[in-house]
Design a protein that fits this description.
4 helices, alpha+beta, 3-stranded antiparallel beta sheet
């Protein structure tokens, strides 16, 4: 198991934390444990997140085994996932990982 700690400063302009860094990091990982805390340093506010994780098989390797029709379906599912996540205000990996999408596409054709 691996451990990664992120410390993200609050962005006043967007009124949010830049959590896309964590989202991208988690795309090919299985998170076993997460702990988050907020803290202040002077006038600045931070969010620190500790992740205990395992690296999972890469969907890109499995993508090579898909035919053109399956790859097109995979891309459409990724677009749907991105739109849905944006609409819900959540990271894309909470809907489905790339591995999940490859599995769906591979088993549906």
């Amino acid at each position: 198991m691996h451990l990664r700690i992120f410390t993200l400063p609050f962005d006043l302009a967007s009124e949010s934390f830049p959590d896309e860094v964590i989202t991208e990091f988690c795309l090919n990982k299985k998170v076993d444990f997460m702990e988050a805390h907020f803290f202040e340093q002077g006038e600045r506010v931070f969010w620190t997140v500790a992740l205990q994780y395992e690296i999972v098989s890469k969907a890109n390797e499995k993508l090579r085994d898909l035919d053109e029709e399956q790859k097109l379906l995979f891309e459409r599912l990724r677009e749907w996932r991105k739109e849905r996540a944006h609409k819900e205000g959540i990271p894309v990996y909470l809907i489905a990982s790339n591995d999940h999408l490859v599995h769906i596409v591979g088993s549906s054709c």
